[in-house]
Amino acid sequence: MKRERYEEELQALQVELVKMLDWTRKSGQRIVIVFEGRDAAGKGGAIKRMTEHLNPRYARIVALSKPTEQERGQWYFQRYINHLLTRGEISIFDRSWYNRAGVEPVFGFCTPQETDMFLAEAPAFEAMLSRDGKVLVKFFLTIGSEMQTLRLHERWHDPLARWKLSDLDFKAMEKWDQYSHAYERMLSATDAPQTPWTIVRANDKRRSRLECIRHVLNMLPYAGKDEKLTAHTDRKIVLSAREFLKSGGES
Fold this sequence. Notes:
Elements: H1 3-27, E1 30-37, H2 43-51, E2 59-62, H3 69-72, H4 78-81, E3 89-94, H5 103-107, H6 112-131, E4 134-142, H7 145-157, H8 167-174, H9 176-190, E5 197-201, H10 205-219, H11 227-230, E6 238-240, H12 241-246
Helix pairs in contact: 1-10, 2-10
């Protein structure tokens, strides 16, 4: 997508996001947006474009570091519950409780039994959030192995972006197949009717950012919605978990 068209569409969708947050404030809705996916898939970029014109008092980004010793002794979901906001606010997770289904089992930071327990409990945990009135939107951004390698090396050579890299990022390239298995298992076990996964093919950063915003807007019945902007979804990029897994998933 050419930059001029991208920036025009992005601005229009960001205006819709401001309208959506205003409706959220007035209606008292509680919204939780989860971004998961491959390293360098563009989660941070999508979140930045989604939030850059929203009031940070009411739309907060949650990006947690590794758990403290005290948090490791708590119920696994406890540290995340503390970041679920109150009425009229939006919590946006840049990675989430799904660490227990991705990076942790791949690198041996948890036991297989802990991952099994998580996959059994996560749908029930999310169902509780849904019954409590929260709107839960779950994104999984996927990219190809060549694109991941390219983006990681671009970050390494960019002094302004190098901070995004960790020791695990480059090791992740060596564990592509292990991640594929873990993510496919995660999507299969935790895709539920009330809290489904939305898969976004993110090799094209610009298109994927627009589609993430569009999907959130489509999920919510806010006042004054411009249906011409929000109605069209690019089905080559946005898939359900069932469609994604049926087409071969991450393998």
